Amino acid sequence: xxxxxxxxxxxxxxxxxxxxxxxxxxxxxxxxxxxxxxxxxxxxxxxxxxxxxxxxxxxxxxxxxxxxxxxxxxxxxxxxxxxxxxxxxxxxxxxxxxxxxxxxxxxxxxxxxxxxxxxxxxxxxxxxxxxxxxxxxxxxxxxxxxxxxxxxxxxxxxxxxxxxxxxxxxxxxxxxxxxxxxxxxxxxxxxxxxxxxxxxxxxxxxxxxxxxxxxxxxxxxxxxxxxxxxxxxxxxxxxxxxxxxxxxxxxxxxxxxxxxxxxxxxxxxxxxxxxxxxxxxxxxxxxxxxxxxxxxxxxxxxxxxxxxxxxxxxxxxxxxxxxxxxxxxxxxxxxxxxxx
Length: 340
Ligand SMILES: COc1cccc([C@H]2O[C@H](CC(=O)N[C@@H](CC(=O)O)C(=O)O)C(=O)N(CC(C)(C)C)c3ccc(Cl)cc32)c1OC
Description:
Helix content: 55-70%
Low-confidence stretches: none
Order of helices and strands: HHHHHHHHHHHHHHHHH
Bound molecules: ligand D9A
Radius of gyration: 20 Å
Largest sheet: none
Oligomer: single chain
Strand content: under 5%
Mean pLDDT: 95
Number of helices: 17
């Protein structure tokens, strides 16, 4: 493993990265030196935003201005805010390390991070009050919290000179595919969240299957729960071909792996969740051994194509003709298999 930076602010950032997402930290650290620091700082700035958004103990009239002005706070090493739990409390209480590391980045990287943080913070603020009702709301919310991350990363890759600039549309899809997979996988964890659950499953989808989203926890509602789950997964699969197109355009091997590994985890998760009532009984996680295999064996686009092909075929094998979404699921499956 390369030498930890002597710079105390950056070494705090890499330590935090290790703590908040060990598996992902490994792939970030394999990026080139310039890009690595920018992505590490970007990741922690996003985690900071997320921690504020998720902290239900912060009153709205305090939370909303923090979200909206977060893009200015990152320029102010004097600013910090006590919120979040465990490692996130450490992150927020010592946020000056992140803002100092941010200020030491090249300006072209700072500008990308600041603009994305501005748009994301304002988007989050909008959805603190508004519920996700329609599929359009669902795509808009996922754009703010995940699509913008893809767009920001594409701009950092381009600013580093290592990649051409990917379109906002394909970059957005990279975020939506991951975020929608997380929202689907985390149904039970999210709906049991105390003091108040924040659910992002759109009423336009679940309202076709039950009067209340929490009904899916009930044994007697298993059939409609699985039908709704398959509908949600079918909606997420719409983004898969955009993600394959985005990854096929990447040139730098460390950037490729950084982008490909989460996408493969996502298609593997969707295949495991499809038609699986266990999503409403616990959190369906792909086995650690499989995840480790994915991290080690994803080197080229042909690895990505064959892995997407395999997991999409596994999902297709589980499609029940009687499932209400089956025709649409088959359509998305066919376009993915054709692309691979
Ligand atoms: C071109 O776009 C990307 C390319 C590579 C990786 C990601 C994306 O992947 C991780 C992967 C990650 O963080 N995995 C976790 C495991 C998990 O969350 O289930 C981990 O390995 O700890 C992820 O999930 N999110 C969070 C969002 C989805 C909200 C964007 C994320 C947060 C901050 C950054 Cl800088 C990047 C990402 C991209 O973002 C779209």
